[in-house]
Amino acid sequence: MRLGFHFFTILLLMGSSGLHGQAGPPARSPVIFTFATVGDSRGEPGAAGNSAQDELWVQNAAVAARMFNEIGRQHPQALVFNGDMIYGYTTDLAVLDRQYAFWRGMVTGLLAGGTYVLPVPGNHEVQVPTAGPDGRSTKLAEETHEGAWRRNMGDLILNTALWKRLTGSEVTAWRVENRPLPGSDGISTNQEQLSYSFDVGPIHLAVINTDPVGRDGSVPLAWLQADLAAAKARGCRRFFVFGHKMPFTYVPQGKKVPKEGGLEGRRDERDAFWDLVEAYSATYFCGHQHVYHASQPRLAEGGKAWQVIVGSGGSPFGFKPGQTGSPLDRMYAWASVSVREDGGVSVQVFGFDERLGPTRILESFEIPK
């Protein structure tokens, strides 16, 4: 069950002296790895209030720059960015390269300050608006754009020497060849550096491309199943999966389904994917929906796995003011994650409002070992 911020704060205030003479909480196992995660910083062309620079770079630079600066001051070992860092949606590869270059410039301070930046592909990176058979426009992944992703992000996927220098930890089980292969999972193109994985001690991190060419809005299920099984056989005890699209779209009670569809278009595959996440007690971090929302989708059936949507890095909010009744639904936010030696995980979510007010803790919760 999720711990609310106020309860978490009470625990902190109790300290070792306890409350009314009672003993305080037991000492926690040492933290062995920390990372931050967020996604969706791209802007929207023609949005009200856009400057000339906003139109050129199509990036919410004011929010993203502040967020990256504050994440840097927290000194996580890594930042996993869950896609839609550029607007894309163009066949002009020079425009794509220019947008990637701007975003790479914004995260340079993180890399210089000791935080490794690990990118995850989103639909805005790999898709292009395309006329469908009925004449209406749809968006489909293109092989040229998968290549543009590798050209602009491949040096980060994975520079093991840089990872060790910045994080102080060793990467193991990294092979660029470990990726979904054409002919499996409906894959038709080279997925090198689009879906990938590695270990950090007993922790396994897997990144999946949720919009491969010809299979937009899907999961490389067979690859991921084999990947997680191999990691467990190596002795990994804590599993994190990162992708852009969410399996379960956040729909506030009594509201219509938002326009940002996730993986529901392939419902059987989505359910099989979540079966796998549950089987490994994994945590899935994603973006796409421009909101922060953490949930345990199968809690009512006894499931324990968490889906954490952090598509709140600066892209236009998915909900209008007052639409949901929750102030968290219009907050720019990121998650800060600490993994302990015993396998327990602490998540703190930090954010600030649309007026760029003070940063505060929005929510805190524990994921037991």
Descriptive account of the structure:
This protein is α/β, with parallel strands linked by helices. The chain has a single domain, classed as Purple Acid Phosphatase, chain A, domain 2 (4-Layer Sandwich), CATH 3.60.21.10. It has 9 helices and 14 strands. It has helices at 5-14, 52-57, 61-74, 93-113, 123-126, 143-153, 160-167, 221-233, 267-279; strands at 31-38, 78-81, 116-119, 127-131, 137-141, 196-200, 203-207, 238-242, 283-286, 292-295, 306-310, 331-340, 345-353, 360-367. The strands form 3 sheets. Strands 3-2-1-12-13-14 form a 6-stranded mixed sheet. Helix 9 links the parallel strand 8 (238-242) and strand 9. Helix 3 runs parallel beside helix 4 (93-113) and helix 4 runs parallel beside helix 6. The protein is globular. The model is unreliable at 1-22 (pLDDT under 50).
> How are strands sequenced across the largest beta sheet?
3-2-1-12-13-14
CATH architecture: 4-Layer Sandwich
Number of domains: 1
Radius of gyration: 20 Å
CATH topology: Purple Acid Phosphatase, chain A, domain 2
CATH superfamily: Metallo-dependent phosphatases
Distance between the termini: 14 Å
Low-confidence stretches: 1-22
Quick one: biggest sheet?
Answer: 6 strands, mixed
Q: Tell me, briefly, the overall form.
A: globular
State the share of residues found in helices, binned by percent: 25-40%
Alpha-beta content class: alpha/beta
How many H/I helices? Answer: 9
**Record field, number of beta strands:** 14
Mean pLDDT level: 92
Strand content: 15-25%
CATH class: Alpha Beta
Order of helices and strands: HEHHEHEHEEHHEEHEHEEEEEE
